[in-house]
Amino acid sequence: xxxxxxxxxxxxxxxxxxxxxxxxxxxxxxxxxxxxxxxxxxxxxxxxxxxxxxxxxxxxxxxxxxxxxxxxxxxxxxxxxxxxxxxxxxxxxxxxxxxxxxxxxxxxxxxxxxxxxxxxxxxxxxxxxxxxxxxxxxxxxxxxxxx
Length: 147
Known about the structure:
- By secondary structure, this protein is α+β, with helices and mostly antiparallel strands.
- It is built from three helices and seven strands; from the N terminus they run E-H-H-E-E-E-E-E-E-H.
- Helices cover 30% and strands 39% of the residues.
- The mean pLDDT is 93.
C-alpha cells in the first residue's frame, strides 16, 4: 500500500491572519466554503480551530464517498491539521504571508492507498480529483476573504 498525496496552492489577496481565521472558523465561514462534493457538514465539538471535531461526507467520485470525522489541531502558527478518525486521511492547511496584503495557502492531503492495480489507479487519478475539489474550496475562500 502506497502513500497517496494531493497538494494544491493559491495566492489570496488578504493577510495571512484573516485567511487562517476563515479556514479555522468551522462553525461559520468554513461551511460556506465547501464545494458541492461535501455534504452532511456538522461541527460536533469546538468550532474554532484547535480542538474542533467536524463531520462531513466527501464524494470524491460518482462511486466513492468518504464519511469523515476530523480532529483539528494547530501544531504551529499558520498550520491547521485535520486528521480523519475513520481513515488514514490527513489534510494540512498552511497559510503564510506572500507579500503585502497577500497570503499563500497550501493544502496537502495524504492517505494510505489501496494495493495492487486499484492502488495504481488511485495513486494516479485520485490526487488530480482531490486537487480540483481543493481548488474550488480555495477559490471560494479567496472570494470570501478578499471582500
